[in-house]
Amino acid sequence: MRAAYWTCVVAGCLIGVAGLLVAQDLSKLTEAQRKQLNDWMAERAERMIAVHRLEGELAQAVNDTANTSPEIEALRKRCQELQNELSRAQADLQKKVLALPALQEKRTKLEQERQSINEISNKVKALTDPVR
At 64, is the secondary structure helix, strand, or coil? Predict the structure, then answer.
């Protein structure tokens, strides 16, 4: 999967560069200059791939438990506590917003629609099920 991704990235870079080069008048370049340009573009694409790979590795390093120290573990624990607190606050917010009188009508309508769906589903099931 990663190989396919990188192949697409390189192809995209090369196509983009080719598009830019075609937009310019390359007929003024000598054969040696064209070769040099192609070499630079290939090297640039390879380096871009390497940079992207390193960025990914560094981004994943935060979650890698092999990279640890007492300070890092304390920060990880604090981060988890904050995420848990945020989840609780979001749940509380949702409960309070949904309890507002202005939304009661929509909640009632939602329940009615769900009930109607269940009734229709039961009718379809009764009609399509083989006779018991």
Answer: coil
